[in-house]
Amino acid sequence: MATNRIKALAVCIAVVLNAASPLATADSFAELDREVKRVNQPQQEKFAEFYQWLDNYLSEYEAWRDEYTSNLDKERELLIDQWGNGEVSDSTKSVEYSDSNTVKKVVDYDDNTATISVLVDADQDASSAREALEVLDVDGQTLSLENASEDVAYVDYSSVQEGIEKQFIIDQIQVQMRELDVQAERLIRSNTGIPESFIYERAHKKKIALLQTAAPRITSISEQFKAKRKELGIPETVEAKSVKVAKIAVAENVVSSPKVNIKPTEHVETVAATSPAEISSKEEIAKIEPKPAVTVKPEEIVTLIGELAKGESSKLDVISKVPAVAVTAGQLTQPSVATKVKPAETKVAQVQTSSVKADKKVVSYKVKLPENSLKKRASTFQPLVEKESERWEIDAALVMAIMHSESSFRPDAKSHVPAFGLMQVVPNSAGHDVNKLFRKIDSPMSAADLYVPPINVETGTAYLNILDKRYLKFVTNEEARLYCVIAAYNTGAGNVAKAFNKDRSTNIRKAAVVINSMTPDEVYNHLLENLPYDETKNYLRKVKGRIAMYQ
User: Fold this and answer.
1) Which of 155, 218, 403, 461 could share a disulfide with 360, CB 3.0–4.6 Å?
2) Contact (Cβ atoms closer than 8 angstroms) between residue 118 and residue 129
3) How does DSSP assign 129-195, residue by residue?
4) What are 86-138's pLDDT values in tens digits?
5) Distance of CA 127 to CAs 55, 100, 262, 351, Å?
6) What is the dihedral angle through the alpha carbons of 418, 421, 427, 433, rounded to the nearest 10 degrees?
7) What is the pLDDT of residue 303?
């Protein structure tokens, strides 16, 4: 270290001596002063600078994510104002609107259906909407509407529909919180020398920040629906009082702040870290760990999202003390009527009470996509999957099942995390992991790259390799490890470990001891019962069930 300091000073002195002008000399002396100050800077200040640099680095992606979320909210607000709902595209569904925003085309690749809807006046004959529609174009295929099922529904501003729109926000926040788990886990396994308590506490604070953004977003939805009901003369007393609301559930579902004297996680993979700060001793870093966040008993942190939705922001005072929280999706479903009938026999879906007024209605026509649509899309990428599967020693059937579940084989798929492409790679988690380990690039991937099928499939399959051969390698049974890998692809290996560790820690080696004492079936069932997120449980079921389709 002394040698390095001398070299640094020598360089600065040489610059000063060789200066060509008084101005350059002054600048050089200033640079020398800065270097002398940096060399003499207390070690603790250097660590603080490094923490600040890391926080700023990670915050760049989070700022981009927040901007994306804000723009999405604005888009959905406009759609709700006209259609009564903010339906937008996601990873397995494409939603397109006409320039006039009066015609909507929805292709549900999971359900293998296509629906075209027309927004008309409430007193307009439904058959007039059909006259303007001849065919439905989907992915280069022309589908006839001759045998389409027809559905008519009033534009709905009821409390039930309001709840559905709020649920979209809750679900999005839940997924973004899950990604913070994955990010924290990645930092720990990168062996940066940063104390786990700092990483966990940062993840905790970011989750609290996400929850705090929920209040104004949900309140905005409430105000918009109330304004529309007032505009249409719909009495608030007409609205249902028994609408189910989602709950912000108990803390153990998400990464919690560590206790004092936390033991380091066994590092499965060591990756060099890069930073502008000169860190000389990882042991010294551990001596100045940040204090963990305050802990609160689980029973003190359960609150209703419905209270949050009413604008009771004081509820956030309770949330802000929580070591970690997870959002549990509610059971809200939109009422609708869809039967295969002739246009003349169409019935209007009664989604509101008889006293409720509506000035618009939606006439929809749904058709099934050709039975070979999914198979045709899948076959397009089969050779690419086989190539990458062999390269990364991952079962091709698993890759195909994941691709099916993530995007229904759509290269342009994008979710609200956001994640991108065929295998729905998140740039700053799986994308960063693969970049760092295999491409030797210490930065997240770009969305543009992830829309390129060869890059996306390479990245997704390489990440499965990381999960299987590195993070979860201590699970000895291949079938049991397969179930863990599937779940980890969705929620991160740390959350898989949580499902098996009684203390809810993210220590994978510790969890592997429990997993290895179980049969594969017991591991699968245990995951379904104990994974932190319902979405991951459903994901595990879907992927497991689809593997056989591609074997």
Assistant:
1) 155
2) yes
3) HHHT--EEEETTEEEE-TT-EEEEEE---SHHHHHHHHHHHHHHHHHHHHHHHHHHHHHHHTT-S--
4) 999 999 999 999 998 999 999 999 999 999 999 999 988 888 777 767 678 88
5) 58, 20, 68, 20
6) 140
7) 42
